[in-house]
């Protein structure tokens, strides 16, 4: 995938390899997703059914589809071809990088790095094969395609034409035919024969979205996007270019990667190149303007806006100067269909959406067959055909959203649409009946995030009244977990009547968890806060911590510091930071240990001289656990902590008598980045490796 397309870079420097897998292997993973869907329906009837565990299994299956995979090296894609005519069909959904892949392999062939058995490689963008460029009334041949696409302003000589024919006859030409799905429905009659000849008699690679096509391709591969390592490399290259252009803070790379990895839904969709590029761009915009908080809802809303704009482009509708809401209005029929479909699937506890659900969605939203045909090309739904004999008709197949999180987001949009309608009682009843149902947790989180948009402002009061109203979880844990997650999506600058009461409730639970040694409860609440983007940055929450830290009771103090150490407070106020620094000289080593961990959680923005000096001093602490945590904390502070003093202290720690400290110091040196890549550091790491 090419990074930052507005600027030109050599493709070998900017291209990130995509994962190309055997299509049969991919189908096996999709089959597993359907089996998980069926298991869930069967288990719901059992007394020991655990919905949260089942939801985790489903997410895990999605991550198998989009996560770690063994790629096929591009140079080896012809190895499975058994016929004399080598033909490979490469599938991939919208935005996955099929066209960029075609450019890349063409470039590598031209440099002599790929497929040297071919004397000529011809890349044809099939969407350019139109009647306006190839007028009817003439019979076209492969040489006509070559002339029109590569030599439009000059005629080939007789010798050149004859040489080309000989190359074709000797199978020394490789054709790359990009974008069959855009071409298949409207192949000009005058081009049918030449296209058939190239596809059946010439060596070729054909790319298409994953629709069933009438072809004799025995070798089918699928571009499934980025691998986990590709994501890291892409983000690093993206921000490396941004840093050079605008002197941006390189720490944004690690911050974004932490966000991606901390949320399985975002991590899943980040394997799709067009989505990851958009996420990186949004992160940059958010960093520069400081006008918004990059919540999960903001991410997904912008991805959907991007898909809608691409959809309008294919419809030849100009959209560059249209506001987001105007774009949504122009795609209203399509969005309504996807929203209804997602919500109906959630209601029916199904991920695989059957043709019957499609028909119901069409009838209720007024979506025509022509509209549906276009919706299936948007890259949001993926077809799955488990029949022995495939079908060309997409509406006869089962479909699923490219990630469960997309289904949850569209379902949330449908919920808010109902809440804005005259039938809002239906939405309120749905919230009341399902607010503690784990399957709908992220539907409600997305629904809350949507309330920040002016389009949904009228829904704030009824939504929160339903969430906070009866029935209420008797123990209260499920309720506060839902409250924290939903409130975090909406907290930034949005005022509504229930806001003060929500903050009071959240701070009450914080106080209880910090003061009591209820391990299971603290773990659950801490996990809820670990998933937040904004809440821990607010002054009122940090002031709550400050009030708690005033305690002089030894047991209470231990509980408080232990709880705060579990929370990723990456933007501390000056008062909170200073209070933690004071704790670094506490007489209780357990307090000092947890204070180190809190400082590490503060992140690069807290890598100030006083913090670094305090942690360096802690590396000489008489308690070995404190020394270990001080090293780990320096690693958490990232590249900004890579001062000469810190590096020297960590090098010294690689010789500590405790193995755990030596190991942590080595890991910390690795986290400090290029500044720590000195000969002295390398020598210390080598010595530590020998010590193992």
Helices and strands in order:
Blueprint: H1 11-14, E1 19-22, H2 23-43, H3 51-66, E2 87-91, H4 98-110, E3 120-125, H5 142-150, H6 158-169, E4 173-178, H7 180-183, H8 192-201, E5 203-208, E6 219-225, H9 228-246, H10 251-262, H11 264-269, H12 273-289, H13 296-314, H14 324-330, H15 332-347, H16 355-365, H17 369-375, E7 381-384, E8 398-401, H18 404-419, H19 424-434, H20 441-450, H21 460-468, H22 477-490, H23 499-515, H24 519-530, H25 539-548, H26 554-564, H27 574-583, H28 589-601, H29 609-618, H30 624-636, H31 644-653, H32 659-671, H33 679-691
Parallel strand pairs: 2-5, 2-6, 3-4, 4-5
Antiparallel strand pairs: 1-6, 7-8
Q: Can you put this structure into words, describing what you see?
A:
The chain is α/β, with parallel strands linked by helices. Among the domains are: about 20-30 and about 60-225, 3-Layer(aba) Sandwich (Rossmann fold), CATH 3.40.50; about 230-405, no CATH class; about 570-690, Leucine-rich Repeat Variant (Alpha Horseshoe). It has 33 helices and 8 strands. It has a 6-stranded mixed sheet with strand order 1-6-2-5-4-3, sandwiched between helices. Helix 27 (about 575-585) runs antiparallel to helix 28 (about 590-600). It is globular and about 95 Å long. Residues about 1-5, about 60-65, about 285-290 and about 385-390 have low confidence and may be disordered. It comes from Rotaria socialis. This is NACHT domain-containing protein. Pfam families: HEAT_2 (PF13646), NACHT (PF05729). InterPro entries: ARM-like, ARM-type_fold, HEAT_type_2, NACHT_NTPase, P-loop_NTPase, PBS_lyase_HEAT.
């Amino acid at each position: 995938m090419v990074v930052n397309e507005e600027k030109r870079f050599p493709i070998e420097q900017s291209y990130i390899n995509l994962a190309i897998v055997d299509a049969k292997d991919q189908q096996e993973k999709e089959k597993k997703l359907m089996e998980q869907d069926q298991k869930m329906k069967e288990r719901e009837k059992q007394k020991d059914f655990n919905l949260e565990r089942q939801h985790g299994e489903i997410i895990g299956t999605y991550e198998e589809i989009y996560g770690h995979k063994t790629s096929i090296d591009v140079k080896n894609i012809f190895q499975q071809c058994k016929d004399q005519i080598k033909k490979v069909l490469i599938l991939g959904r919208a935005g996955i990088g099929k066209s960029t892949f075609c450019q890349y392999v063409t470039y590598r062939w031209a440099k002599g790095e790929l497929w040297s058995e071919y004397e000529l490689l011809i890349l044809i963008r099939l969407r350019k094969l139109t009647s306006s460029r190839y007028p009817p009334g003439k019979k076209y041949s492969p040489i006509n395609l070559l002339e029109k696409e590569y030599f439009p302003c000059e005629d080939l000589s007789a010798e050149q034409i004859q040489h080309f024919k000989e190359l074709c006859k000797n199978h020394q030409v490789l054709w790359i035919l990009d974008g069959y799905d855009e071409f298949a429905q409207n192949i000009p009659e005058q081009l049918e024969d030449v296209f058939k000849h190239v596809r059946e008699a010439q060596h070729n690679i054909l790319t298409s979205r994953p629709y069933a096509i009438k072809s004799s391709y025995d070798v089918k591969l699928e571009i499934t996007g980025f691998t986990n390592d590709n994501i890291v490399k892409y983000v690093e290259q993206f921000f490396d270019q941004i840093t050079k252009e605008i002197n941006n803070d390189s720490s944004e790379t690690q911050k974004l990667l932490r966000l991606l990895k901390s949320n399985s839904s975002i991590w899943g969709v980040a394997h799709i190149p067009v989505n990851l590029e958009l996420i990186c761009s949004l992160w940059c915009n958010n960093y520069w303007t400081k006008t918004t908080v990059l919540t999960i809802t903001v991410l997904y809303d912008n991805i959907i806006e991007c898909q809608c704009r691409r959809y309008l482009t294919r419809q030849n509708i100009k959209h560059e100067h249209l506001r987001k809401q105007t774009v949504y209005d122009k795609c209203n029929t399509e969005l309504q269909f996807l929203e209804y479909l997602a919500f109906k699937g959630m209601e029916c506890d199904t991920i695989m959406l059957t043709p019957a659900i499609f028909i119901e969605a069409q009838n209720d939203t007024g979506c025509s067959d022509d509209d549906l045909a276009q919706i299936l090309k948007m890259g949001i739904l993926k077809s799955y055909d488990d029949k022995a004999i495939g079908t060309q008709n997409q509406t006869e197949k089962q479909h699923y959203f490219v990630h469960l999180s997309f289904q949850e987001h569209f379902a949330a949009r449908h919920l808010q649409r109902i809440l804005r309608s005259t039938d809002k009682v239906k939405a309120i009843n749905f919230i009341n009946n399902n607010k503690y149902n784990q399957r709908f947790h992220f539907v409600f989180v997305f629904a809350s995030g949507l309330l920040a948009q002016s389009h949904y402002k009228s829904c704030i009061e009824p939504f929160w009244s339903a969430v906070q109203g009866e029935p209420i979880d008797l123990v209260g844990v499920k309720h506060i977990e839902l409250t924290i997650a939903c409130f975090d999506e909406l907290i930034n600058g949005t005022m509504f009547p229930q806001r003060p009461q929500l903050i009071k409730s959240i701070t009450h639970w914080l106080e209880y968890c910090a003061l009591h040694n209820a391990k299971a409860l603290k773990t659950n609440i801490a996990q809820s806060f670990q998933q937040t983007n904004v809440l821990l940055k607010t002054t009122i929450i940090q002031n709550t911590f400050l009030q708690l830290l005033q305690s002089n009771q030894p047991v209470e103090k231990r509980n408080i510091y232990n709880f705060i150490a579990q929370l990723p407070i990456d933007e501390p106020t000056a008062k909170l930071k200073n209070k933690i620094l004071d704790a670094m000289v506490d007489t209780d080593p357990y307090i000092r240990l947890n204070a180190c961990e809190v400082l590490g959680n503060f992140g690069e923005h807290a890598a100030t001289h006083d913090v670094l000096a305090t942690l360096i001093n802690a590396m000489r602490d008489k308690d070995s656990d404190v020394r270990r945590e001080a090293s780990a904390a320096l690693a958490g502070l990232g590249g900004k902590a890579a001062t000469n003093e810190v590096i020297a202290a960590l090098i010294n720690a690689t010789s500590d008598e405790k193995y755990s400290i030596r190991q942590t110091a080595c890991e910390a040196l690795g986290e400090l980045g290029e500044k720590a890549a000195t000969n002295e550091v390398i020598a210390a790491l080598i010595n530590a490796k020998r010590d193992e």
